Amino acid sequence: MSTAEIASNPLKSKWVQLALGVICMMSISSPQYVWALFTKPIMGQLGVSLTELQVTFSILIVLQTFFSPFQGFLVEKFGPRLLLSVGTVLTGLSWVLSANLTTVSNLYITYGVLGGLGTGIVYIGVVGLMVRWFPNNRGFAVGMVAAGYGIGALLTTFPIADSLASSGLQGTLTFFGYVIGAIGLLAAQGIRVPHADRVQTTSQVQAAASGIAPKTMLKTPVFWLMFLMMSMMSTSGLMVISQMGAFAKDFGITGTMVFGMAALPLALTIDRVTNGFTRPFFGWISDKIGREYTMTIAFGLEAVAMFVWVMTRSDPVLFVVMSGVVFFGWGEIFSLFPSTLTDTFGQKHATTNYGFLYMAQGVGSIIGGPIAAYIHGATESWMPVFAIMIALDATAAILAFFVLRPMRAKYIQSAVYS
User: Fold this and answer.
1) Could you tell me what percentage of the chain is helix, strand and coil, using 3-state DSSP and rounding each to the nearest 5?
2) Can you tell me the distance from the alpha carbon of 143 to that of 288, in angstroms, rounded to the nearest whole number?
3) Which sign, positive or negative, has the C-alpha torsion 273, 310, 230, 33?
4) Cα–Cα distance between 82 and 8 in angstroms, integer?
């Protein structure tokens, strides 16, 4: 596409599309990433236990992920602009409708079901679009939009914490629900699919794998290995996201001050930064040195960081700092796995294919949410929970290097020469 064509219509620029994709992702990030701020006030208002309440978070992630193959199909059939518009509106509406609820079952429907469907449509649609706009740099591009999802809540964490203190739960959910819905809807209006010449690539592997459909992909061991690894990594990160408010309280961090700021909101803010930065960073690294080598480094980093974190849990400063390192070792899964998947199975069905892999996050939400809360309740300690998470991270790092790397190389070679 010529410079003149892009100048006449900026929406044909891949960089403009990347920017709009980032904005859409930022607009839907708060339901997942600021959930920890809502757990205490919702428990107080509804009079429910932490385990009951965490079902809401699991529904959000399960609906966001388990429906993603169908959502990916809808995006490919009806176009990303329409579906992203619907998704952003549903996301904002989920908060507005949650504001006046008096029962946890209704919260499951509004915050959980509507929020999960809305965020899932947007997430799958944007990622599927970027692997097509950036065929030769997809690790970086997917990392950037995934960073939007990871870092978007940075802009809302402190405002929401302040709003909860000044306006209460109802006012906070209503106001921010309208804001995130409106911003996402406006950004979605500029979304476009790439012209045919944009999705071409010089990679022999891509040419060989461009036509692999979901039904064929689901029969391959390499897909299920990636699914297992993404489930393991999702579990550890989503445990921290969903339980951080609870274990910070048990560790004596809630109410403490670090650098003149409340420790928990500060940790959540730093987490958003590192969780966002790691996605394009490790995505770019993986474009240079390979996906599996990058996975080994990043997954191993999270295992080590989580071990240090729990060993120094009573120190507020180290709690804040190490929480950021933990997320730096976790967030890159959302750039590495979609890039690896599309490298392996091609981009023709990239959106729907990633929808199936993204279901692994739903598995992680169940284990990291209510199951982790149950383990804590049964043992009256967070130590068994952290031990399981560290083991999952370390195992995923080992699998990336010793199993996924040779298995995927063998599969790609067979695809090229078949």
Assistant:
1) 85, 0, 15
2) 14
3) negative
4) 23
What are the structural domain ranges in the chain?
Answer: 9-417
pTM of structure? 0.82
Token match 């692994």: residue? 360
d(CA 359, CA 227): 8
Q: Under CATH, to which class is 9-417 assigned?
A: mainly alpha
Cα dihedral 54, 56, 61, 62 sign: positive
Nearest to 95 by CA among 74, 62, 118: 118
Of the candidate ranges 9-18, 333-342, 384-393, the one whose mean pLDDT is the lowest: 9-18
- Find out whether 238 and 364 touch, Cβ atoms under 8 Å: yes
pLDDT for the residue numbered 77:
86
Summarised one tens digit per residue, pLDDT across range 119-154 is 999 999 999 899 889 988 899 999 999 988 877 877
Determine contact, residues 103/386, Cβ cutoff 8 Å: no
Give the pLDDT mean for 372-397. 96
Contacts of 166 (CB under 8 A, 6+ apart): none
If you average pLDDT over every residue of the chain, what do you get? 89
CA distance 37 to 76: 35
Q: Phi-psi region for residue 39, left (φ > 0), alpha (ψ -120 to 50) or beta?
A: alpha
pLDDT band for position 2 (cuts 50, 70, 90) = low
Q: With CA atoms as reference, report the closest residue to 135 among 350, 410, 389.
A: 350
